[in-house]
Amino acid sequence: MTKAGTRFRKKKQAKAEKYMRSTAPGKYHDILIPDFEVGCKRRIFDSGYLESLHEPNLLLTDEPVLEIVPEGVRTKDRVIKADVIVLANGFDTNNPLAGVEIVGRDGVEIRQHWDSFGGSEAYQCSVLNEFPNFFLILGTFEGDSPFIFIFIFILFLFLFLFLFLFFTFFLLYL
């Protein structure tokens, strides 16, 4: 990386960290503030997320979850009472929810469920039959989503249009 690029990243990183420290509760700084350079991973463009962490009925933790129990979430040292659990564990586009065992009605595992459909799927990208009270967000480019093909088609359409116009202009004026 060039010296100018390094300076630019450090400036952006300092600005992002200052914003996070001024907006998020101090008790979460160690969890939230990245230990990597800006631009190295996806970042959260805050739209009230950091401010929401001040809510008294919210707990952010990076403790490893051992299991989900009727009362909430069991970690190594405690059970955290929870009505809603948000799991943000990153992504693997070819293997969504990798390393997470999710069992629905009648012992159906999420892998079995998705295998029966030929890949990851969810109604309206958020709910699965046989998994009551389980919601997820499958993004636009998640797994076998057709949107990636639509995106590629549009990209090629614009490329074709650009080349057509370029060569039309080139041939008419030469």
Brief description of this entry?
This protein is mainly alpha-helical. The chain is 36% helix and 7% strand. The mean pLDDT is 78.
Termini gap: 42 Å
Q: Please provide the count of β strands.
A: 3
Helix count, per DSSP? 5
Strand order of the largest sheet: 1-2-3
Class of secondary structure makeup: mainly alpha
Shape: flat
Beta-strand content bin: 5-15%
List the uncertain runs: none
Overall pLDDT level? 78
Q: Main beta sheet, described?
A: 3 strands, antiparallel
The helix fraction, in percent, is 25-40%
> What is the succession of H and E elements?
HHHEEEHH
- Radius of gyration computed on alpha carbons: 23 Å
Can you put this structure into words, describing what you see?
The protein has helices spanning 3-23, 29-32, 49-52, 110-117, 147-172; strands spanning 65-69, 72-75, 79-81. It is mainly alpha-helical. Strands 1-2-3 form a 3-stranded antiparallel β-sheet, with no helix packed on it. The longest helix is centred in the last third of the chain and has 26 residues, at 147-172.
Helices and strands in order, then pairings?
Elements: H1 3-23, H2 29-32, H3 49-52, E1 65-69, E2 72-75, E3 79-81, H4 110-117, H5 147-172
Antiparallel strand pairs: 1-2, 2-3
